[in-house]
Structures are given as structure tokens and as C-alpha cells.
């Protein structure tokens, strides 16, 4: 077995164990393999090991890499999206995880209409309130949900990135904060927001305990960047 295949097996076992400990179904969270900085060959190895969902954080890298992989890969753009990169992002990514303004939301819906695509969208929320970080303040999320309504793109939930070097307690608080915000928005708007994209190589177990439905795993699959 290649390193990457062995790493995937280990991560899948870790995910299954975290779901079981949380009393959740074994298929209640999916693994998104974050291939940023790694070449198409590495993604091909992960593909051969059975993975189909891959995440990139930069549009240019997504556009370079995606055409080199089989067409049944599902690409997720997980990084900050600039307005002038929406079109190429929509040409390659089925999911956008980091919608973080009304203007961006409107542009995505307009260009998705032009391109006849129906992306799945997640809103990035800055739960921890770090100043250096992208993402909506919790109080600004509902306006973006409203701006997305009626377009071809469908908002399915929320995404967050936890602070680096946070304690376990802080991580629980951040991930629980995203879940609680989602629950409040569902209660207020009646929208279905089933997806919580949270958890990376270092903190996926805690994210799963707090309800993650997508974990974004780079290092634990592909190695150090
Ligand atoms: C790089 C990245 C990840 C993966 O991080 P690892 O610690 O390598 O698992 C997850 N989410 C986002 C937004 C990223 O940019």
C-alpha cells in the first residue's frame, strides 16, 4: 500500500471512531481530502484508494489540477474567494465553502446562472472572532442567506476554521458555536442547513464530536506541506 493509501485508511478509521464515540451514524460525516500544494499524481493516488472529494484553497491551483484528474472527482474550493475569480472557480468546483459576503453571494448566483451550474454553497463564519481571519461575523450570516435565495446555487450550511494552537476546550467551543448558530438560523429562517464543514487534521475528532458533516483533511493524508 502507498503511503497515501495507508494514511487514508488511518484517517477513515479515525473518522469512524470519532463518529461512533459521538453516537452518530458511520456515514454521518464525509472526508474531504485537501490536496493543496500537492501535485496531481498525489491526488491520483488518493483517487486510486477510493476518494472522490478533493479540496483546494486557491482558484488557480484548482484550475491547474482538476483537469488532470478523472471527471468523477468532486472539487471543493475551501479557501477565500475573490470576486474576480468566481467564474473560474465555478467552472471547476462543485462546492464553494467560503462564501463570506452579500456581494460575493450575488456574484456567484449571477455567474452560476450564466454558466448553467448549480454549486453547493457554504458560508464561512469567523466564530472565534480573530481579527486576522476571513469569514462572516455570526450576526452577518442571515443577510447572506437571504441574498442567496432563489439563485441556482444552493446554500447547504456553514463552514469555519478553528484558531491555530487553541486548547481542546476552545476547539469544542468554536465548533459547538458553529452548530448552535446553524440551529438558530434553521429555526429562524426555516431553511435546511444540514452541512457543517469543520475540522482539519489536528482537530477533526473534536469537530466530529460537535457535529461536523465534512472534515477537511490535508496533512494527515498527503503529508506535511
Ligand atoms: C489547508 C486547509 C485544510 C487542511 O488542513 P490540514 O491541517 O492540513 O488537515 C482545511 N481547511 C482549510 C480551509 C485549509 O486551507
From TrEMBL:
Swiss-Prot/TrEMBL cofactor(s): pyridoxal 5'-phosphate
PANTHER family linked: PROLINE SYNTHETASE CO-TRANSCRIBED BACTERIAL HOMOLOG PROTEIN, PYRIDOXAL PHOSPHATE HOMEOSTASIS PROTEIN
Annotated ranges, domain Alanine racemase N-terminal: 9-223
Record carries keyword Secreted: no
Role summary: Pyridoxal 5'-phosphate (PLP)-binding protein, which is involved in PLP homeostasis.
A Pfam family per the record: Ala_racemase_N
The protein's name: Pyridoxal phosphate homeostasis protein
Modified residues (N6-(pyridoxal phosphate)lysine): 36
Gene Ontology molecular function, alphabetical: pyridoxal phosphate binding
Similarity comment: family membership: Belongs to the pyridoxal phosphate-binding protein YggS/PROSC family.
Keywords: Pyridoxal phosphate
Coiled coil found in the keyword field: no
Classification via InterPro entries: Ala_racemase_N (IPR001608), PLP-binding_barrel (IPR029066), PyrdxlP_homeostasis (IPR011078)
Amino acid at each position: 500500500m502507498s503511503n497515501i493509501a495507508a494514511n487514508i485508511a488511518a484517517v477513515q478509521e479515525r473518522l469512524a471512531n470519532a463518529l461512533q464515540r459521538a453516537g452518530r451514524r458511520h456515514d454521518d460525516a464525509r472526508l474531504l481530502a485537501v490536496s493543496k500544494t500537492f501535485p496531481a499524481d498525489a491526488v491520483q493516488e488518493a483517487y486510486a484508494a477510493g476518494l472522490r472529494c478533493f479540496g483546494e484553497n486557491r482558484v488557480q491551483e484548482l484550475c491547474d489540477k482538476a483537469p488532470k484528474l478523472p471527471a468523477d472527482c468532486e472539487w471543493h474550493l475551501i479557501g477565500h474567494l475573490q470576486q474576480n475569480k468566481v467564474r473560474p472557480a465555478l467552472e471547476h468546483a462543485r462546492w464553494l465553502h467560503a462564501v463570506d459576503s452579500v456581494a460575493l453571494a450575488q456574484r456567484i448566483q449571477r455567474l452560476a446562472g450564466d454558466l448553467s451550474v448549480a454549486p453547493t454553497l457554504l458560508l464561512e463564519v469567523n466564530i472565534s472572532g480573530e481579527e486576522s481571519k476571513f469569514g462572516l461575523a455570526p450576526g452577518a450570516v442571515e443577510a447572506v442567506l437571504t441574498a442567496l435565495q432563489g439563485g441556482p446555487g444552493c446554500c447547504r450550511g456553514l463552514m469555519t476554521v478553528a484558531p491555530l494552537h487553541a486548547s481542546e476546550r476552545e476547539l469544542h467551543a468554536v465548533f459547538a458555536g458553529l452548530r448552535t448558530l446553524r440551529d438558530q438560523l434553521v429555526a429562524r429562517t426555516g431553511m435546511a442547513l444540514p452541512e457543517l464543514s469543520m475540522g482539519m487534521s489536528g482537530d477533526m475528532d473534536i469537530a466530529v464530536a460537535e457535529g461536523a458533516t465534512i472534515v477537511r483533511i490535508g496533512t494527515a493524508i498527503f503529508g506535511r506541506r
